[in-house]
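step 3/5: co-fold with prephenic acid
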Amino acid sequence: MNKKVGIQGIQGSFHHLVAMDYYHKDIAVMEHLSFHELAQKLAGRETNEAVMAIENSIAGSILPNYALIDEYNLSVIGEHYTPVNMNLMAIEGQKIEEIKKVFSHPMALLQCKEFFKKHPHIKLIEDADTAEAARRISEEGKLKVAAVASPAAAEMYGLEILAKEIHTIKSNATRFLVLGTEKQKPNGEKLDKASLKFDLKSERGSLVSVLNILRDCCLDMTKIQSLPIIDEPWKYSFFVDVIFEKFDDLEKAINVLKLMTEELKVLGIYKNKLV
Ligand SMILES: O=C(O)C(=O)C[C@]1(C(=O)O)C=C[C@@H](O)C=C1
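step 4/5: write tokens
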């Protein structure tokens, strides 16, 4: 039986394109219309693995997704970086001046802010998914509305692209995590990246001490993200990604950090794809 891989969105969404790219083989794609549902279904073993966007080069981190990975005890088993090409699409034969409303995923709208500043007559409406917005406009035959989505979605749902590549910076890209319910098993690939989470006591220099340990253990930090601990106002959790050459170095750092931090969690050890 094909592996069931959860995505946020439907066919033609960026998650769908990433799933096709990452797995290179037959998978059963399971569509979800929220990140919460994506995490819940994976944790409940209704899917085997899932693809989840975590950060975009223009719009920044998707903070709630860090919390979901933690809350549902999901494991990071891989990552994938992909260029993201945003396009304005609608039922054929209309001009941008006629479009009154644009529907899309909030992360997609954020990536096109500069474009929409030049078209202030258009009202932006946040939707569950880029491709789903495109499909709905097509199925309902709605005029004067448009979606922001991938060229694949325009093709799949028969919409005309009114403006192409409308993202603010040409090199727009999104980092996706591949998630499972178990830690990655050795698969012959050299694993060289880890995602860690810890809470810090509010003590002077506690974060600096952690960063010094990472440096002393030869770990290269590629990302640090703080997240408020909701039941303890003004206390934070930290999510850190590190690249390592020797597994021993990572182990050494983890052992020391366990003593220095509260609730150290290894979210996953996987192959670095950042070039
Ligand atoms: O709506 C989609 O097509 C998605 O796959 C979601 C999503 C996101 O959550 O960031 C994925 C990649 C792009 O950055 C824009 C939107």
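step 5/5: annotate
The mean pLDDT is 96.
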